[in-house]
Amino acid sequence: MIVYLKGIAATGPGFEDWNALSKHLTSDVGLDPDFVPHPQGDILSSVERRRASVTVKLAVDVAQAALQQSGMKSEDLALVFASSNGDTNTIHQICEALATPERFVSPTRFHNSVHNAPAGYWSIATSSMQPSSSICAWDDSFAAGLVEAATQCVTENLPVLLAVFDTPFPEPLYEKTPGHQPFGVALVLDLIPDGSLAKMRIEVDGDVNLATTPMANLQLEVIRCDSSASRSLPLLAALATPGANEVVLGYSGDLRLRIAVENLHR
């Protein structure tokens, strides 16, 4: 599959946005050791923002940043949202509630616990009537989301907004699950080359001996291995580096995702 990148956004431990991360990737500008994402959910109405969790706010923040960079309209884009664990804090709160004698779960917490809640908040905030998909594939959620988004883009001839996000669980699940630091990434994919940031050729490869691409920087390699969303880092590095690059991501068991990137000039 061949798709074109129209917008990109990212936030995670040590960097606030794509601009900060790309500078680090291309010029060794250091990451901010004290920075941790604090999502705001500014696109949400005041009522929805009060109800929304940190996970929802992270998802819509990176989605909005990528959309703004693309210059496209939200009502024209299909949605693919992906996360390994979903709304971690809400799931923790529901588990706590179910452990009490009363076993009372608030409607708002239940509402936020479903895996497609972030996509629903986005659709309400943007008045989008386009189709949306919400995906979970454990550590391979980014790769699975990318395949789904690219497939929809190619088969439906429709631009697609992909957002992948992970937030940590509180204890005791914190130590038993991936994703110990919040990380969000979003891409806007299209079939039209004009005005694109990059061209991406995406192929599923069954070669079990094909190694996934690590990060050369040890600090970034630790972040890469932390969550499904942060496993996007090799692709983000390729998109930040001028010229042509190729990366391999893990995808569904022994399968690999081979991505050839050709960066373009606007």
3D architecture notes:
This protein has 9 helices and 8 strands. With 266 residues, it is α+β, with helices and mostly antiparallel strands. The protein has a single domain (2-194), classed as Thiolase/Chalcone synthase (Peroxisomal Thiolase, Chain A, domain 1), CATH 3.40.47. The protein has an 8-stranded mixed beta sheet, with helices on both faces. The two termini are 22 Å apart.
Walk me through the topology.
Layout: E1 2-11, H1 18-27, H2 46-51, H3 54-70, E2 78-82, H4 88-98, H5 107-113, H6 117-126, E3 132-135, H7 141-156, E4 160-166, E5 183-190, E6 198-205, H8 218-224, H9 233-240, E7 244-250, E8 256-263
Parallel strand pairs: 2-3, 2-4
Antiparallel strand pairs: 1-5, 1-6, 4-5, 6-8, 7-8
Helix pairs in contact: 3-6, 4-5
What is the CATH superfamily?
Answer: Thiolase/Chalcone synthase
Main β sheet profile: 8 strands, mixed
Count of separate DSSP helical elements: 9
> Helix amount, in percent?
25-40%
**DSSP strand tally:** 8
Low-confidence stretches: none
Give the SSE order as H and E letters.
EHHHEHHHEHEEEHHEE
Structural category is: alpha+beta
Q: What does the average pLDDT come to?
A: 93
